[in-house]
Amino acid sequence: MSKDQLFSSYDQLSSTWDEMFNTNAEIRGQYETIIAFLKNTSKETLSKKEELSKQLFMSQGVTFTVYNDNEGIEKIFPFDIVPRIITGSEWDKIERGIKQRIKALNLFIKDIYNEQFIIKDGIVPADLIYSCPNYMREMKGIKVPHDVYVHIAGVDLIRNNDGEFYVLEDNLRTPSGVSYMLENREISKRLYPGILPKNNVRSVSNYPNMLYKKLQELSYNSNPNIVLLTPGIYNSAYYEHTTLARLMGIELVEGSDLVVKNHFVYMKTTNGLKQVDVIYRRVDDDFLDPLEFNATSVLGVAGIMAAYRKGNVNIINAPGTGVADDKATYVYVPDMISYYLGEEPILKNIETYQLGRPDELEYVIKNIKTMVIKKTDGSGGYGMLMGHEASEEEIKDYLDNLKKKPENFIAQPILKLSTAPCYIDGQLSPRCIDLRPFALSGKDGIDICPGGLTRVALKKGSLVVNSSQGGGSKDTWVIN
């Protein structure tokens, strides 16, 4: 395919950082190899590769669930065949920034559930913590193994039009998406044989082994029995649960497969009860233990928190970590880095307005067309107001609801997410993207898988990358 054909639909967005083209409309060095390959490949062949990727996702059962879709809840995860490419120097800064951030957040969680120095010193307001729906008083004073609360984190990054990466949000409870990262790479190996080693693309396939070793480290047993606790087949990330359990060689269990006796957790087997040492749980806090949280829950295990308090089982991630990834808490993460580490943040926050403050609420209302408003406990792109897209009526209705409890909302300027080339209708076309790298913490420190999940807003002009709202993904190459 000629260059003219390939780029005939490539209209760079104004005031937007493009991952492939520099400001002089020249292809960035990291994209030269893959673009040369695409230019020397016919449109028919590229379309066949696109179709092959869909077939591979279908055969592997790579799906996600949309609960409010009348067409059915299971969907194949959309995949774009053109990889997103990050240089080694860019990745080095991302890696250092995420390690710094996770270290500070982990210290914050430990502090909040113990001495609360950061509150006493006036860095974080007490009412912000105690009013947070993800703050768990049941975690107060619990000693966790090796003082690690955040074992698995997914930190969402965006690149603004200044070329710098900013943290959009921290996912510290049950972060998802790593199975898509792994599957995307397997697809790329099939689509581009020989190109990954030629480009010195760093491997992500070791993630399950990295995770298993971290889980092993977090038990005082030298040969721990580790299980993955899933809510079941109707959960939106069930494919991921089955994939990770299989790749780590551990049992996938539901709440009904476990029982607590004498403050120890056991798994039911055909040979009787087998003690469980580590639980990688993908069940939300509220449903973890019906004796202490939601009494109607059938997803968790009665008595599991009592076993956890006594140190007889380790739960990954620790219950109550959500206090640190609440969108209201996000505002204070740079202060946490300064307070606990005595350092300046390597990765910056996006400017954020707390709408419980009357002056900030007034400013946001006046500038509503340039703002995105989010619920502090929201996720998945739901419950947001995109000011530049909303009608006057939609804005009025949203603000009427917001004003009932403004402290439950934050606002941020609508940013120019960077764009990357996507293969759409036979041409390359720019689409907005973000990035979710995955960090693993254990007693020996923090490791970050070199790449992560790049999510794509496949709808032209859209800034919403969530799969449940029309987004897709692409493989992420970190090259040396």
From TrEMBL:
InterPro entries: ATP-dep_Glu-Cys_Ligase-2 (IPR051680), CP_ATPgrasp_2 (IPR025841), UCP005522 (IPR016450)
Stored Pfam families: CP_ATPgrasp_2
Circularly permuted ATP-grasp type domain residues: 83-457
The protein, known as: Circularly permuted ATP-grasp type 2 domain-containing protein
Annotated source species: Yeosuana aromativorans
